[in-house]
Amino acid sequence: MALTDDPPLASGYADRVIAVEPGGNEYIPDDARHGKPRQLFWTWMSPNLEFATIFIGVLSVTAFGMNFWQATLGLAVGVGLGAAAHFVLSGRGPAHGVPQMVLGRLAFGYRGNALPAAFMSIMCGVGWFATNSVSGAWALSTLTGMPKLTALILIVVAQTGFAVFGHNLVHAFERFVFPILAVVFVVVTIAIFSKAELGGGAPSSGVGGIGGFLLTVGTAFGYAGGWNPYAADYSRYLPKTVSRVATGGYAAAGLFVSCLWLSTLGAASATIVGAAQGSPTDVFTANLPDVLAKLTLLAIALGAVAANALNVYSGAMAFVTIGIELPVRTQRAVVSICFGAIGFLVAWWALPDAAASYEAFLLIVAYWIGPWLGVMFVDQYLRRGRKIDDLLYNRAFTNWPGVAAFLFGLVLSVLLFSHQAKFTGYLVRRVPELGDITFFVGFLVSATAYFLLAQRRTTPA
């Protein structure tokens, strides 16, 4: 059992669904473990059956200048890399019984881990929350005719409520909406592909070339890999005896299938010539028959709630992991409410034109996750065969080489390879054909730096 300052509150929670999950980021004891690895398939399918996933594919054609087949290849590479990382990270949940950001303390130390935990809290718990809330509000507003602000409030209240109750209700909701979302989007896929011009050329207005392809890979990884810091949060309640391969496999499969499916659907929809105006959800559903369009809008709203239930839950978990102590047994639930309120304000601000910043947001997510994964994977390799649970809640444990390697890879990769409207990396300015390979470089630089700095510190005798 991991060493904690507090008793394992989850013992009284176990498999209860309509109950607020107590505590924050504590170790899950054996008597509270339950479930099977296969539940992770729909847990990671449902939150990606939403419009934000579709819009990645739309960007790959309209903004990055890819034809359908080029876009599909780039999307497959980016999503595949994110799913591969998810396989490794999810598989560790049952063995250690702690959230993903608590496992991050091994690579960064108790205090140093506050840096990536803060990145996740802000960019995922608030940034992703706002992004998905906007698309859900657009869809609900078009479907019902209610004002966008009213639709946004309803969406935010629903998804924050699931996150407040916690782990078991989140899993139950993802399982409930999975068949609804899957059936609707299967029919939508058939309708869109029947109209799409899959053999058409790439649009001349986009980036095009290898640069556009790498931007496609980067945004796809930014979306799929954006879930990586959540991975063990949803596998930590599984019994220790479950297969690590099965655990990682179901999680990775759900992530890969859903992300590639809907992003490819988005790429196909972008090849259809039309004159529809309005929000991105309006433009997308304009290609569908009226009844199917209404069902799709409902599915988009449900998908936004499914995605943000995870975003708020894990964002709050990461915030608690920073080390800020709250004197309540339901500290994660309280933080979830706060994140819901902050996310609502950000979404309200972005409601008029959130699509304009979506591309940049996806790339920025990938910027920090690349170096984070590099340090995490090397640390896991160096600690193989070593007992680690005694370090996870040890406030005196430090690992500054992890923090240094993370920052070095992040800063260097952004300065040289970032491809943003407000800042273009120094090397990309000279060779614009590179596109944006910041996350690749960040991963490799941080992994190499950490291996060199920490080999003696972490390798078992």
From TrEMBL:
The keyword Nucleotide-binding does not apply. The keyword Transport applies. Pfam families: Transp_cyt_pur (PF02133). The chain crosses the membrane at residues 41-62, 68-89, 110-129, 149-169, 176-194, 206-227, 248-275, 295-321, 333-351, 357-378, 399-417, 437-454. Keywords: Cell membrane, Membrane, Transmembrane, Transmembrane helix, Transport. InterPro entries: Na/Ala_symport, Pur-cyt_permease, Pur-cyt_permease_Fcy2/21/22. It is a multi-pass membrane protein. It is found in: Cell membrane. One of its GO terms (cellular component) is plasma membrane. GO terms for molecular function: amino acid:sodium symporter activity. Belongs to the alanine or glycine:cation symporter (AGCS) (TC 2.A.25) family. This is Cytosine permease. It comes from Nocardia ninae NBRC 108245.
